[in-house]
Each structure stands twice: as structure tokens, then as C-alpha cells.
Amino acid sequence: MGKTPFALAGLVLTLGFAPAAGWAQDSAGSVSTAIAASATEVMAKVREAAQYLKEKGLAGFADFNNNKDARWVWKDSYVFVYSCRDDVMIAHPLRPDLVGKPILQMRDDKGTALFQEMCKASDNPNGGWVEYWWPKPGEAKASRKISYVHSAPVSFKSDIQVGAGIYDEKLTASDLSKIVEDTAKPQKAVP
């Protein structure tokens, strides 16, 4: 056995998770974003997840922790579930070590309290985007990540939020706001 598999295994163990389905590994062992989710896909998946939890209730939380279920893990993104009021990560498909842990004091490499920002953004009826710096799967250095977050009406648990993100260097806050506005508009019926 060569050194590359051990190096990758060590990196995965260090970061605490395996690359998502959309993360490709080249022959040198580097992980890249060959298959990137779009901002529109992230918003659609988050809203689908909120609707799913509305229908399933508390029993639906476990479905987000199964990383073999590709429904909530696609391309280079995934849906996570958290509670601002309870200050806890409820479900995370790639980081089971975070489930049950407090989130509000988590800070990115630039000192941003990312979940505090996500809690504010999810108060918007149409959801919102939060920018922070977070390592891509398989990397130690943080990259710009933008996550879309939305509240989820779950019976007997009123303060639930869901989110998913992408790594993007180009989208601006106004680009992201426009995407939210465009997707919130009623769709015209097709004849």
C-alpha cells in the first residue's frame, strides 16, 4: 500500500469527516470541488428540507444524520439542522461529532460567530444567506463559504432552522438577495 491512502485517511481523521459525494480526489490525493452545487440548488434543498421536517416532525431529524441518504447530501453540499433557542446542532450528515453540541459560540477563522449570524438570517420569512470562512472537506485552510438558512416549522419544536452552503468567491450579498427575492416570487402558471 502506498503513502497516499494513509495520507488521505489521516487527513480525513484529522478533519473528522469524509468528503461528500461531490468532492473528487485527484491522483495526488488532493480534494477538489469538481461538482459544485449552485446557490439556487442550495435554496431549493433547504426549503425542501424545511417542508420535509414540517411533515415528518421530530422523527425526521434522524434522516439528516444518515450520510448514505443522498437526499440531503448532494454534489459538494449538504443540509444541516440546528436550534438557535436550544443552542444545539440537531443533525449534520458529515459531522456527527457536532450533533448535540452547542453552536452559538462557534467562530470561523475571522472571528465571526457564524451560527449567531445564521440565527438572525433565518428569522427572515424567506430565509437568508450568511458568509463565513470554513475549510472545504479535506482541506485545513478556510475558504469563503456562504450558507442559506431558513426556519422549519416542526410540531412540538418551534425553533428549528435548516441550512446548506456552497464555497464561492464571486457571489455578492446583492446577488444572493436577488436570488432569494426571485425564488420568493409567485411562479406564473404555464399554459
From TrEMBL:
It is a multi-pass membrane protein. It comes from Candidatus Thiodictyon syntrophicum. Residues 1-24 form the signal peptide. GO terms for cellular component: plasma membrane. Its main location: membrane. Residues 39-116 form the Single Cache domain. It is found in: Cell membrane. Keywords: Cell membrane, Membrane, Signal, Transmembrane, Transmembrane helix. The keyword Cell membrane applies. InterPro entries: Double_Cache_2, sCache_2. This is Calcium:proton antiporter. The keyword Transmembrane helix applies.
